[in-house]
Amino acid sequence: MGKNCHKDHKEKSSGIFGMFKPLIYIVLIPTIVIAGVIFLTTRSQGTEAQNQEAAGVSNSTYEVDKNSFSFGTISMKDGNVETIYELTNTGSEDIFIKELFTSCMCTKAQLILADGTLTGFNGMKGHGGQNDFYVGKIIKAGETVKVKTVFDPNAHGPQGVGPIKRNIILSTNLKDSPNIQFSFDAEVTK
Length: 190
Ligand SMILES: [Cu+2]
Description:
Helix content is 28%, strand content 37%. By secondary structure, it is α+β, with helices and mostly antiparallel strands. The strands form 2 sheets. A 5-stranded mixed beta sheet has the order 2-9-8-4-6. Strands 1-3-7-5 form a 4-stranded antiparallel beta sheet, with no helix packed on it. It comes from candidate division WWE3 bacterium RIFCSPHIGHO2_02_FULL_38_14.
């Protein structure tokens, strides 16, 4: 009797396995394959940036369309104003952009990469963690990126009238001047 009982149990468990067997092929294996592809893709992107950072300094050169810009007289009631600076890698090596940040919380900036990809809007250092300013992108030789900059004249409240000047800074792995700085000024009225 005990022998039969054991046999029944064995058959039952193989029956349960039989029930789940199609699930293993339909759900589990595709899930593992997709997870693997995602893992490898993210890892290879991370490695490209990390390799570049680890590679150390770049001997490349660059040109900008302008270092500074004047908005002239702007009114708080008209809201945000924006300008775009262009940065071209004119050398023969990659330039690694480590961070992007601004000199004040009223000013935000983002990169528009050569392929049109946008990075997040970054602001002033000291608000939030270091990861908020990390860019980790590469400008290949010959490529141009845009630095889109938005100034909010209302950010400082009614006291924010008068002349202002703000900076946008890109930290890079360039050997000679790792920090590329852009600036703008304006006369803010009510
Ligand atoms: Cu400000």
